[in-house]
Write a structure and sequence with these properties.
elongated; 0% strand
Length: 217
Amino acid sequence: MNHNAVLKRGIESHTQGRLEQAVADYSQVIESASAEDTELMCQALYYRGSVYQQLDRYDQLTEDMNRMIECRGEVSAELVAQAYSMRGESYAAQGKWVSAIADHTTIIESLEGLPTGMILSALLCRGRLFAEQDRYESAIADLTAVIEQASEHRLPAYFQAEAYWNRGQAYFAQAEYFRAAQDLNLVISSHCLGATTQQNAEELLAECEKQLRESSD
């Protein structure tokens, strides 16, 4: 059996929206490659987990990510980080904030040799989660770290814009309207985050400016 060919077929089915066929192909690779190629098995687990994520089948997703994480030390750190990231997203979708934050923290603090982009992505996700819990100081600290390092490591402009957008909202929640306005202006001028976010940023900026005018009267 050509495991790579079956995995490729699964990815094609996945891309075309034939999700059950994709699951069948990924499962075939997982079951037959487990004793021969741990890295390939974990790739198939990750892709199958992404299908389960689309279908909101969180228990099955978590089981697949757990199996990947159990292979830590046998497969690349990047694959393990992807498992923690997807499981963290799953926990967040279910409102399991503590578990979600713990998974992203593991990526940030406990996995060696990861590309900077993966670490900053985890910081961005954790910053959003802190904000969801009204832990604004922690959110701002994570998002500031993303902003400071994103340009240094030449990450895409949208990545930094996303951090400014989330930090601007955190500043607004703390009634730090001047700082919020600075971040929101950068989001708006970047034109990186799509029409809906652009409009939301413009509306929030208008509210910041209103609050600043009222405080100066």
